[in-house]
Amino acid sequence: MKFIHAADIHLDTPLQGLVHYAGAPVNEIRNATRRAFEKLLDAALTRQVDFVIIAGDLYDVGLKSFESALFFNRQMARLKDAGIDVYLIHGNHDAASKLIKQLRPPANVHVFRSNEPQTFRRDVLQLPVAIHGQSFATPEVTDDLAAKYPAPVSNAFNIGVLHTNLSGMSEHANYAPCTLDTLKNKGYQYWALGHVHNRQIFCSDPYIVFPGNIQGRHGKEPGEKGCELVTVSDSGAISIETIPTSVLLWSEVEIDTSDCQTADDVYDKLPAVFCKLVSESHERVTALRVRIAGSSEAHTELNRDPEAVRNEVMSLASEFGNGLLWIERVQVATVPRIDRQALLTRDDPVGEVMRALTELRKNPAPAADWEGIAELKKRLPQEGAGDADPIVLDIRALATAIDEAEALLLARVSALETA
Amino acid sequence: MRIDRIDLIRYGHFFQRVIDIPRRQPDFFVIYGDNEAGKSTLLRGISALLFGVPSRTPDVHSCKGPELRIGATISDSSASFSFRRRKGTTATLLSESEAQIPEDTLTPFLRGLDRARFEQFFGLDHIRLREGGEELLRGEGDIGSALFQAAGFDLRKLLDALDKETAELFSPRSKSRVIGSALEEYKQARAQVRRTSLSGAAVKEKQAELERAKASRDALNGEADLLREQLTKLHRIAGNKADVARLQELRTALAALEWVPALPASARRQRDEAVADLTDATAQIESLTDQVAQRMEKIKALPLSDAFKAHAREIEALNAGTQDYLRGILDLPKRCDDRDKLMQRADMEWRTIWPQRPVSDAEQLRSAYARKTEILALITENARLVVALEKSEESLRSDRDEHDRLSRELAASAEPRDPATLLASIEESKRLGDTAEATSRQQSECKRMDAEIARELKTLSLWSGTHEDLESLSIPMLSTVEQYARDWEELADRRRDLSARESSVVVSIREKQAELDRLGLQVSTAGEKELAEARDRRNHLWELIRAFAFEMKLTREAAQKEAGSRDPLPEVFAQQLLRSDEIADLRFSNAKDVAIHDRVVKEIASANAEQQSVRAEASSIDADFNDLRRRWRTEWRSLAADPLSPAEMKEWMARRQKILDKLEQRRSKEKDLQLIGERAAVAAAGIRARLCDIGCNAVKETDSLSVVQSVAEAFAKQIEEQRRTIRDLRRTLQLIDLHTQEANVNDCKTRLSEWAERWSPLMTGLLLPTVATPERASTALDVLEKVFMLLEKANDLQHRIDRIGENISQFEADAARLAAAIDSSLTTLKPQQIATSLQERLIETGKAETRRTELENQNTSDEANVASCRAKAQAATATLQRLMELAKCEDNQRLEVVIAAAEEKAEKQEAYNRIAAGLVERNAIADLQHIEEEASAYELDSLRNEVTRHEERQKELQDQAFKAGAEYGRLQQEYERLEGSEDAALQAQTAEDALAKARPAIAQYLRLRIAAEVLQRAMDSYREKHQGPVLTRASELFSRLTLGEHDGLTTTFGDDDKPVLVAVRKNKEQVEVAGLSDGARDQLYFALRLAAIEDHVTRVAPCPVILDDILIHSDDLRATTALQVLAEIAQRTQVLLFTHHSRLADLGSKAGASVIHLQLSAATAVA
Q1: Considering the entire predicted model, what is its pTM?
Q2: What is the ipTM of this complex?
């Protein structure tokens, strides 16, 4: 018996943080979540799986257009033609979305009810299978749903499908929390989990698996994404294979500048890094966050105009990226080779600047009311834009900007001093 | 930086003019010249020199732009630099030889100064003084900013750049900037998402519509299918009618042919083929037999030979070798000649080395030549050893000479004493710092303070004595003065109040009098007083009349006399009665005016009374004031002059105290000076003692510490130099190692003798003398190499000659042998002719052989054909026999009849079967009988009518079904489009892209905005902290420049809450700059500049101050003060003052300036 376990499809959610610029591979990643979902179904068809499990968050909460549901139904029809059933639960995002509830899925799609746990039996297989699950009724389910899942069906392969924040993983919303022991003690052979976007296998007896999402949507979801192809032998032995589905890979590289004298020295390091990434991407686009770090002589030049650095990096990516590199962000985080204490005690404008920055750093809040910043804050969109780095001018953003402003000021003042 | 010389090569009116500005103290020069002498040109020229010639300059009128040149020599404490400047946009800085030099060469001298800063502070004419001053006050180039620039760079420019960058990213009032535009894009994309989103209801409606269309299409298709089935059946029956009739006909015909025996279907073909085969085989056998006989005859006639066949290969080989044979005969003599020449050349070469031996001996030298590498290595080694020997010998010789020289030099040098104690003394004395400079500075300070004290004393009113007298002057206590001041002020206030009251009363009387006047003459004569007087007069006259007429107390005459009128008393009474009635009437008719008049009159009377009272009070106060003054003067009797008011005297006391404070400071500085002098003397004495200790008496008791220090340093340096020289000599002597050098020479010689031992046997092997030189051996090896090469070539040629001879002999032998073996008649021919003849005859014999083979093969084939024909004839006969047996007949003709009948029967049976099968197949019914019955059931005409009716209905249904199908297809396509639609998703991506675009821009905006704000705040803070000293200094200077008319400057806040500068008058009144006179405003601007210049000089570096006639509006006293201030500044930096007023030149000279006369046509000279 073979089945695919996927989760957190977030169909039709946009990719976040990709600034279009000349040379960026825009067309290659058009509607990446759809393309990734198609790859998942291609795998189901070519590998001739018996069924597919989607452990929640098929859609995103922000989506309101039924075109996503129609697309899903059409894809499900492909599986139906091949006799492949789909078992699906609603996660926190789906429960908030009206898409599934209002549009009836094809007959081969089995949606678990939300008021209580439900079990689907597949006795026609050589190895009988019982699939247990429960959908989220509301976006914020804080009960331990797993605790109420039924006892395993004897002489069958029991699969638990659950959208959960297992053991309260801190970076994710704490929905349907449960503990590892609860799952282990349930007596199922495989737990098909969803909600956590990074692939994680917590246990192999029984298997407790988060497959992660099928397409990273922003810089905080780096690396290869995909679904799990689970093969169960007649004796019940389980093997797991990850099937990559990413259309676009998110990645971050750190360039160490400690041996660099000038910005050009830093730029000289990039072509090799870019070529390596391209060769490892298997012809897929990589959205790259370049972090330039370390303490070096090049600090002043790099921080004098971070925009110029960004443009140079993008230009190199266009030249050496073979059309497969998209620079998502360039972060100049180099550390100056300066004696901050000495600067603070200087009786000159630089000293005044450093003292003013030190004061501001202790309490950045008033900066939010400065002319320009206050108006900008009002102009920022109020509606949510996904779960990655919303544009908010809070204390944290101001503190970061203060650090960057210090680097920029020191760099430019230094340039004036040495002019 | 200072300017040492200006070269006006071609600039403005100037041509080849040089202005030398020698170093002086103070570094203060007045450049004096008439109007149009070029002072303003010179000021522009200096600016152009330092910062480039502006593209639009008025100074190109006497030369073309590219020819314009101005040069200078500038210097600072460590370097001097001469250069020129040309007009242009790039690379305008030139050396004195007109070579381009980098612009940044000037940077160390300018120390961050740019043109704007220079022209605002250092290169001033009257216009710039005013305009720049106003800028300073507006805050555009405020002092704080100036201070920032004085720190070496201009943070305001950086701030402007940051502001500009932030403005490009975001502006609250614009949507077109980067961030605004991205956020707008986001907003629009979100709106587009909402517009393009599909609703659930719309999708469901579309699904229902699709279902309806599908049902409609399916119903129509169902009916059409049913109709199509019926129509098919009718068509089928109609199609069967003809075949069913034909089937019945065939069935009858077959019954009539039942007698015919069954023959194979190919019976006719078998019979025809057997007859034809029999006839053909018989004819062929006859023809082939004749042809075989003819070919046998032809074979007998062919020319065949076995001898040629046996020698065929040899003949062909002989023929192939003919060309080589002929070429060999021709080449042989030439090759022999070449070989002989090579042998001769080898012999010649050989004899250059070995003349007594034949060249054939060369072979003996093969083994010796094989050791060529060894010999060449020995030659190289020999050369190296010889060179090493020569070098070693030369080195030994040189070292011996050097050793001798150094030994002599060392013997001649005496060891000087250790200068450590001297250096320690110098070092200790240096800890005192530059005492001469400190002394000079203190003296200068004392001098300045003396001048200030003198000036203060001079300007101190009521005093003409010395400062000592001033110091010892007995004056009242401050509290006493203040008590006097209070009393004085109180009396003055009271007196002022009284004066004010009196003035007020006088004014009031004047006003009331005027009001009285306005009431008119009429009313004025009908006052209460006038009425009372008229009535009193009337009553008096009546009393007189009553006294003489009724009471008889008086006589008529006495009454008439007392009435005081010539007119008779009754008439006078009547007139007076009339008069009083008239006044009363007048008052009645003008009652209002009369009331006012009466009131005013009373008020005037009251005011007059008050005036009298005030005057009395004033007299009393004046008496008190006089008493106070008297007592006040008593308090100040030691002053020997009438004191001013207590308030003024308080001010006077403050000024006195200021002078006394300065005197105290002066004394303190004097003490410092003395202390410095004492310490310097002690230090100098110490150094002198150390110098004496080590034998130097070059300093005098009277020499200053700096002189002693420099002499001592020079001496210590000299001693150190001597000691170092001796140390170097000893170290060098130790380093010279003569023994090693001698050992090297001997070693080289030993290795050369070892070399000779290895060399001799090799020379013997080469048949050369054992002592042959490496050069000779090398030549011998070269010759031997050539000889061997020539001999090898000759040998090769000999081999070739031998091979050619062998080939010729072999060819001739082969030709003769073949001729004898094949045809002896050929032996008389030349070998090449034999070969040709034999070849031709061999070819002819070969052709005959080929022909015979062909003929024999044809015969064999024909014989086989004959056998085949005979077999064929036999088979045909057998076939005919078998067919006749089947047809049950005896001959061929009967056979033909039976075959024809059998064929007809088979043909009809086949037709029957075909039609029956066709019916079964077409109708898909196995039962043929059922088909025939069906066909019989319908008449043809009624069948056709029914088909027509069904076809019409079918057409209608097809049209309807097509339309329903098209509609369904359209709806399905729409639905599929919806299924594939991703508009909303793509718009959501567009919105996200817009946010992504905004994100880095916002980050950049934040960091820029914060940087700009922090910088602005830092600048404000810095200004607040550091503007103070500059402002204080400017305040002092302003007070001096205005000769004390103003106390100084201070800051207050303007209407916009920004700090503004105001002047403080002597009476403490604050005056805004706009309220100052032109002259005072100039002095204010000048004071601000001078303070900023001093600050720059202190913080950064000296820089020339060039002033073009800025004192033209000052009187002599103010100009003198300004020149003194400039002279003080010139102690620290160069000051050049341009003027065309001889008066100013004279005053400048008195203030310590050197005067340079600037004339267009004459040389300049320093006065």
Answers
A1: 0.46
A2: 0.82
